[in-house]
Amino acid sequence: QVQLVESGGGLVQAGGSLRLSCVASGSIFSINAMGWYRQAPGKQRELVALITSGGTTNYADSVKGRFTISRDNAKNTVYLQMNSLKPEDTAVYYCNADVTTTQPRGMRARYWGQGTQVTVSS
What we know:
By secondary structure, the chain is mainly beta. It is built from no helices and eleven strands.
C-alpha cells in the first residue's frame, strides 16, 4: 500500500526552529497534495499547511509568516520548516497525502503518517 514516514519532531525552546519531513512510498501513481495537520490533547485535529503537486500552498492563520511548507515531487517528500515556535504550537503533527495508487489501479485515497510530537517550552 502507501506508507508515510515522518522525522524531525522533538523538544525546542520558544523562539526556536524545527524542520519536519515526511516521505511517501509504496504503490503510488501520483500524489495530488501533501500536508501537515496537528492535534493537541483535548482538541480537534487541524490543518497546518498544504501543498499541491503544482506548488500551490495554504496555511493556517496561526502559522502564517512562521512556517513554510515545501515538497520534492521526485522524492515524494514534503517538508515543514517551523520558525519562531510558540508554546501553543505544541501538538502531535501528522503528515497526510492525497494519493492515486497503482494497486488497486486508479484508486484515490488519503493516507496518514504515524504522528510526531513537537513540544515547545516557554
